[in-house]
Q: What sequence folds into this?
């Protein structure tokens, strides 16, 4: 099970005092608040809406849409890993201090598709590790 985002919470993650990782979002934090704080801290953020997602196919479709993945995304685990370790599709003009994916309704997805959720967590974890030492790290919050 993924750990809860440690104190000082989202602020620590965005300021770099908490290392990037795959964390459970504290229940009091909402997606709009998280994305607003990320934007204020010059992080690029995307919300992955998992409400009603119960299969790998639906998860991949939601990733493609909500994360605005590139056309070459092949809708499989390897392709998701490739997209998350090559963030050129997500980079805009200017520099981001980091990249943040917030997966909303993670608990419901995990309950409906536990094997897929475990695999997704592993893919997210590998991508976070890949970017951990980069100037612009990646973090994933499971809400």
A:
């Amino acid at each position: 099970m993924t750990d809860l985002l440690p104190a000082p919470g989202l602020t620590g993650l965005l300021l770099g005092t908490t290392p990037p990782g795959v964390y459970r979002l504290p229940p009091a934090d909402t997606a709009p608040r998280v994305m607003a704080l990320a934007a204020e801290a010059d992080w690029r953020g995307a919300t992955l809406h998992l409400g009603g997602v119960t299969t790998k196919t639906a998860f991949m479709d939601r990733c493609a849409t909500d994360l605005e993945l590139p056309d070459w995304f092949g809708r499989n685990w390897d392709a998701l890993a490739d997209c998350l370790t090559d963030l050129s599709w997500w980079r805009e003009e200017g520099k981001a201090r980091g990249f943040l994916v917030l997966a909303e309704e993670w608990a419901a997805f995990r309950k409906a598709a536990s094997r897929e959720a475990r695999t997704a967590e592993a893919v997210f974890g590998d991508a976070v590790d890949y970017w951990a030492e980069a100037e612009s790290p990646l973090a994933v919050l499971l809400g």
User: Anything to note?
Assistant: The domain at 49-95+102-127 is CATH 3.30.370 (Barnase; Chain D). The first helix runs from residue 10 to 15.
